[in-house]
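Let us begin with a simple case.
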Amino acid sequence: MVDLVWVASVTAGAICFGAGLLGWMKSPRSPAAGLFLLAMSAIFVATATGSLYPLVDASYADAAETMAKTFVVAALLAMTFLWEVTIVFPINRRIAFWPPNRYGFMIVAGIVLACVLGGQAELDYDNPLGPTLTPATAKIFMVYAIAMIALASVSVLLSRLKANDEGRRSSMIFLIGLWVLFASGFVYAIDFTTGHEDAMEFSVLTNASLVAGLSISGLLFAVAIARGQMVMVSPSPEKFISSSKAQYKLLHRRVYLVLEEKPDFSMKMFSDILKSRCFDCLDDESFPCESLDCSSCSLPCPCRTCKKYTTRAQGLIVTRQYPKDVRTRYYIQTTPMLWLSTVAGKDNMDPAKLSLLTDFLVSFMERSQNGVVLVDGLEYLVTSNDFLRVLKSIDRWTETAMASRSRLIMSIDPKAFDPKELALLERNREVVRPDAKETWQIIPERI
């Protein structure tokens, strides 16, 4: 029976850990995904140690104390990390640890508090059924759990007011999973409030509720993340460095095919869109924000309160050029980049895996509220795949851009394709000729 309890507890913890790992793999650079992985890892440690210390004989008091402290620290850290996830989810707020801003201070203070309180955990050996947490430790445990679930719930509900549709959906799934986790300890809460000192006794009912709650919550998170229903990161715009409007008029739901030997003009357009106001912005009172955190700025921001697009342009670059060189040359900071390369890497994309690239682009355009995507390196894709297969993928990108109100820019060298292939690429797409002598042939038009 004891072995079965431990196996069931560890299995439930492993499910939670798997959900956290999946969330981090989907968004490895997201602070929310990182904190979520830490929370699920702490749950796994808590489930692995929480069912062991009651089995230790009083003659091994030191070992039991160590396991009990590990369990309490891990459990408190799990609650803390789950609350801290809501600091950057569903609204992605900037975190700084040195010098710390208020969000960085809150995260560090929460971790320290959980470790200090957990380190004071004590065991009571007077219980004839085995070592249990003392009433004082159990009280701290319960008060802390209630405080964390309350903070997390309030934070999510407030953030939902400023989140987009995807953020509201993701936050609701997260909140449901969070309350399932909290409800899994409901039996213990009843025992404690009725005055039972052996509330941590591993009864069948208590174990069943804990294991069921952890398993259901972990599976809910895992399935929602795998299906893209719970997204831990949202596309983020570049910093607003110019109060002027974008120089080029790129319409939404349009695909622009730029004919150039090197992707200089397309990069220029892309950078201009990201760092300037929208070309059709009706508010002329905007100003350049440099290093201010929007959440700590009280000045009116026309971009933040935009009713038409919700947010400024959110970009993505798929390029054959080395990403660091692109960032340095065009001063691009936060925009994600995919490097078309056979070299293994976190942000690298094998050109032979065209279906994965298509899934990534489609997912980005569907998630972004004001998306603009630049693809450079179609010639390289054709060398690793046949032309018709690449054309089929481009058609899928085109359809997604039109359906999601995004803008797609593709830079190609016309000399790399024969006339028939070039005609197929130009079909149903706006053709941009930067070197055209007639200004009206340059699309998009200047404002």
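The second case is a distinct protein. As before, the sequence precedes its structure tokens.
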Amino acid sequence: MSGVLNEVARFISAPGADAVKALLSSKGSVSIPLGAVTCEDGTALLKQANAVTGYSQIANKEIVINIPVNTNPANGLALGFTTALPIDMDPAYPVEVHVLVGKAANTDALTLDCEVYPTGVANVANSDIQLTAATAIVAAGSELTFKCGVPAEFTKGGLSVVLTLGGTNDGDAVYIYSIWLEYTKLLLNG
């Protein structure tokens, strides 16, 4: 495929060639703004204060969702968001939920789990389709990837995603830097 793209690029101006490459790319993404993330019950997150999860700016730089020290995962802290599925998604391939997350220190063994519930026309209250186990959060930060098998009947629908902190949090603040979906595009329609 890259040979074809290079040939096309020789005959099209640089901006046009970039547009053709984007159209022919098999990978797509959907950005999830941090402001779209709420508590699982829909309660809006606010500016982080004391022991309450919310938004904060680290060292006057990154804006993050800050899950503060001593937030006990056993108390059921869960964050969520909803998003529509892209219309060019190929249901033959999994959708991935990506979360860039880190810890302020490396005091506790913490995990992040992800549940994904599809919704479609006249098809709601479905089971979790997420296929990846809870994954460890490392202090330096890492990209956690959760794969989901989206059944074909949900290609014109959406996803409700729930992120749950696990472990025991005695001394680490957890920071969520960004969240996005990745999917494979359906390149040709029959």
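Helices lie at 2-11, 14-24. The first helix runs from residue 2 to 11.
Keep these points in mind for the review questions at the end of the chapter.
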